[in-house]
């Protein structure tokens, strides 16, 4: 250790200068490192912030597109026909059923055959909903028709009948009919059958079918639906 002491005594000034230079270099290096690290951290924070903002904008745009798409899917159109008070095309919402479409069309007509209608069926865009009259199809046609995949709508018939038979042999003669005969006709109940018989008793035999419209409760619409089942002979 004596040689170190001797060296220090002989070169004290030089040693102090060297130590000072080393200390200064360390100090300067440390400052440069801090500045470089700070700059990189700032750049990283800036890049991260920019990326987050970009993702937020992208997410917002995607969300708006999804909301717009969902809104456009909420409303669509169906066509309801047949024995309803106001047939036509109606705008409905996703989740609605045939019952809602019937209500939108003013409800069933008096002679609607509700037994053939599935009121719980969900509605689809471009769907045709047909409400049959009593006895009209004899359950041979579907009462609702779905839109096909290519957006064209076709009736899916199970039979060829489109209404009551016009064969005169199957029609009931108003002038020979008994109450039980009249009750077989869709749309004629106890009261209406009795009114028809009472009219015939009071006025004599029917000369033409149009006379039915003179009976209370049988208007133009009811007559149009009944005349296919009736005839006047004797």
Task: Give a structural overview.
By secondary structure, this protein is an alpha/beta fold. It folds into three domains: 11-72; 73-145; 172-231, Photosystem II 12 kDa extrinsic protein (DNA polymerase, domain 1, Orthogonal Bundle). Helix content is 44%, strand content 11%. It is built from six helices and six strands. The chain has a four-stranded mixed β-sheet with strand order 2-1-3-4. A hairpin with a 5-residue loop joins strand 1 and strand 2 (88-93). The longest helix is centred in the first third of the chain and has 63 residues, at 12-74. The chain starts with a helix and ends with a strand. Mean pLDDT is 77; it is low at 138-142 and 146-167.
- Largest sheet properties: 4 strands, mixed
What is the distance, rounded to the nearest whole angstrom, between the alpha carbons of the first and last residues?
A: 152 Å
Average pLDDT metric: 77
Number of helical stretches of at least 4 residues: 6
In one word, what is the shape?
A: rod-shaped
Keywords: Membrane, Transmembrane, Transmembrane helix
Transmembrane segments: 12-33
GO molecular function: DNA binding
Domain Helix-hairpin-helix DNA-binding motif class: 180-199, 210-229
